[in-house]
Amino acid sequence: MNEAKLGILGGMGPQATQDFYQRILDRTDASCDQEHLPAFILSDTRMPDRTAAILGGDAEGCRRRLLSDARTLERVGCTAIAIPCNTSHFFADDLQKELRIPIIHMVRETVRTLAQDPDIRKVGILATDGTVRAGVYQKECEAQGLRAVSPPPEIQNLVMSIIYDEIKKGEKGSREKFAAIDRWLRDAACDAAILGCTELSVYRTFHGLPEFYVDAMDILAERCITYCGYRLRMV
């Protein structure tokens, strides 16, 4: 019988990949090394910027590199792939057509989780320009009957600044900038907001955020554990 092995296609960014694997360790119900989920981490830090590729760059080149990395994970015996980068999920369905093993779709799983809560109908999307403009989350929300809203330009600029000017540069992220984002979400009467960029997930690790914020990276980590046949740590 083949053993489950998770392939993590990371490096987008590297801090987020490290945070993602730590969440898998933290959320797995294990008492020794042998009870943890085997994983192969490919941290491709040379991957072209996904937002730049989607918004007028070499999208096909980015897709080909993602596919090459995914096939590497497939060849080394991985039984499922996780991509802890929301923007990369612009390519996920296309990649899946060329793979024999499943990609655990972070965006789709996150929206399905939200849709199960009857009190959540209007959702704020905090993500890169590429994710937002490509409608990556909006399409999944519409399919689940949720209304997705994205910030106006002045607030989106703050989101991008936290991601690119701070977290990706090794900083912890500005509380003041995030406070302005939070005010907009509350004024827009959102029932919840998705942390739809793994750098924002890293921000949450550093600062903590209330349950209003749904962390896509958390949901991906949990789905990876259960898909591979391992139990979640509940306390």
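^ that was protein a. below is b, sequence first then the tokens
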Amino acid sequence: MAQSTPENWRRTDEFLSDLLVGHDPGLEAALAAQRGAGMPPIEVAPVSGKLLNLLARIRGAHRALEIGTLGGYSTIWLARGVGDGGEVVSIEAEPANAAIARASIDAAGIGDRVAIRIGRAADVLPTLEGSEPFDLVFIDADKQSNTIYLDWAARLGRTGTVVVLDNVGREGEIVNEDTDDPMVAGTRDGLRMLAEDPRFDATALQTVGVKGWDGVALALVLSPGP
């Protein structure tokens, strides 16, 4: 029996990716551009990108909101998920990252579906109020602001909006109530909000793979608004 080790997690993830995701020139070019620009390799794993794509399609999402563009890898997955005529609004704090993402998204042939808003998400999100509600929200940015982003996910969504909160495992540190790591504390706060806020119904899964030991929370918006 194979041992549960980081190396075997990685090999299994790569096997699943090769089998169920395959190779894709647009996505691989986006990763190459991200690496070439010196961005950190913190994008979602291929199997997680495919999950976002499937969730958008299962939900029949027409509009998706992404908080944290980075190099545009997950944005491409979401844009393909919303299909022709759909829209992804992606928020990125760093203009240099947004420029790399914009070029990669356009090169992938789905640039007409993606609007990148540059700025701190906490500042950009209020400007989206009054627009058509989002059907899916993907949160993958600074963990200290998770509760702010979740609040806006409900405000900008509708009943039935799917919310995906990434990186909730934190290598098991989320069980540490005395943590002094602000990212872990922010993750715990976000999970607690999903448990206690009546606007959400949620679950979470811990994961292992090429990104190590982590996890993802999935939530359904039961009632939008503040």
